[in-house]
Design a protein that fits this description.
about 450 residues, mainly alpha, Growth Hormone, Chain: A, 18 helices, globular
């Protein structure tokens, strides 16, 4: 079969698992790791700022809201830039933004300066998530796509454990500023490593840049098959000719079948931001407000956040065996039950055990839904717009969440906060169950055929 008689996507999907796929996972995952590290260091840094008097629970809310505001703008802009100018431009641009701003934050003289720089960091942080998950999906065959998305989630959310333990080991002795130094230097190193990453052939094809798409795909095929020049040898049912340029627009996300998919993606993003940033980010502040020392608070949080990499690895197990839709529904209800039980834990062992389970299930949901499921719902020409819109809606809805969490905590303590989170999980399970589609085992072109 001639290489030009079948779509680029079909050729990419015919490739066996190889070092190329692992390299792409590592390069995208490394950037996502430092993105996650920069996001999650807020938990330990804010707790330390409360203790040393530089901040309070109220001013911490402004810091977190500035993060969400920046991530909202960054998610939106990355969707537009990624679909117009390419995946490669977008992921390098946003990595440079949050890396440089992180280094500047290390020298912030006050919480006000730190909050302003956090907004700038957020621009890059929000963009990295959109581009990373969307780009990985376009390179991976159907049999690998869900599992590799879960592994990418593992890279990202291992940063929670590293940031928490790093804060536990670094902040009491060297101070909080070093957390931002680590994030900035790490992002700079990854930026250099990713300079030679290829552009997405699926995106090039969608723009009518057929010769470029074919050349990049041939390079990938040669790498996978050990330097040999090859053409795809496996015929596909319903093979699709190389397409003409597609001019996707934002309005297409609200037409026909895409409306239900956009709604599903928005709900998933809103609830994931709620449960992650309404519970996990606030844990050290809650513990300190209840009278624990900084060291003990960070120790409790560190043990609980060990559930993050465990949950992501469980996502690797369930992404293909259970499927993205069914897995999201099942574990939304599991997390709902854990959220109702957690406020009744009073001993240190019970608090850490239930907290560990809660964190694990939260990140299992993230692996199945945010990482794997949402990018699959949209066609290539508007994929990053779709992912960006859903992410933007989630960030926008959650700009006010820190203030709501602070108010609920003041009114009813941790029970009130967990009631809100449990209600969100129930809504997510019902929406995905009744409105969502299953994408397991399908080529991206078939999901959107």
């Amino acid at each position: 079969m001639d290489a030009m008689t079948t779509s680029i996507g079909r050729r990419l999907d015919s490739l066996p698992q190889s070092g190329f796929h692992r390299r792409m996972l590592f390069l995208i995952g490394a950037g996502m790791f430092f993105d996650g590290f920069d996001i999650y260091l807020a938990a330990t840094v804010l707790g330390a700022l409360v203790r040393n008097g530089m901040s309070s629970v109220a001013t911490n809310a402004w810091f977190i809201s500035a993060t969400f505001a920046g991530m909202t703008v960054g998610a939106w802009m990355s969707g537009i830039l990624g679909d117009r100018l390419g995946r490669r431009f977008s992921y390098q641009f946003n990595l440079a933004i949050f890396g440089a701003a992180s280094l500047c934050a290390a020298f912030a003289p006050s919480i006000q300066w730190l909050t302003g720089l956090r907004f700038v960091m957020g621009l890059g942080l929000g963009a990295e998530i959109v581009v990373g998950y969307g780009t990985l999906a376009e390179f991976m065959p159907p049999a690998l796509r869900g599992r590799y998305a879960a592994l990418l989630n593992f890279f990202t959310n291992s940063a929670l454990m590293v940031a928490t333990f790093g804060g536990f080991l670094i902040i009491p002795y060297l101070g909080w500023r070093w957390m931002f130094v680590i994030a900035g230097i790490g992002a700079g190193i990854v930026w250099l490593l990713r300079k030679n990453m290829p552009e997405s052939p699926r995106w090039l094809e969608s723009k009518g840049r057929i010769a470029e798409a074919d050349a990049v795909t041939r390079d990938i095929e040669q790498e996978v098959y050990g330097g040999q020049t090859v053409s795809p040898a496996v015929p596909f049912a319903n093979s699709v000719p190389l397409s003409q340029p597609q001019r996707g627009s934002l309005g297409e996300l609200f037409k026909g079948r895409m409306l239900a998919r956009t709604f599903t993606g928005i709900v998933i993003n809103v609830i994931n931001n709620l449960i992650t940033h309404g519970f996990i980010i606030w844990m050290p502040s809650f513990f300190i407000a209840q009278g624990l020392t900084v060291t003990r608070s960070l120790g409790f949080t560190a043990v609980m956040t060990l559930g993050a990499p465990v949950g992501s690895l469980l996502g690797y197990v369930f992404a293909e065996s259970l499927g993205r839709k069914r897995g999201t529904v099942v574990f939304s209800f599991v997390a709902f039950a854990l959220g109702l039980l957690y406020p009744h834990a009073h001993t240190p062992v019970a608090i850490m055990s239930l907290g560990f389970c809660m964190v694990a299930v939260i990140f299992l949901l993230g692996a199945l839904s945010i990482s794997a499921y949402v990018p699959e719902l949209f066609p290539t020409e508007i994929r990053l717009r779709g992912v960006g819109l859903c992410s933007t809606a989630g960030r926008l809805a959650n700009i006010g969440i820190p203030f709501l969490v602070a108010a609920l905590y003041g009114f009813g303590g941790i029970s009130a906060v967990l009631s809100l989170i449990s209600a969100g999980l129930l809504v997510q399970g019902l929406v995905v169950g009744f409105v969502g589609i299953e994408t397991r085992g399908l080529a991206l072109e078939d999901v959107n055929a």
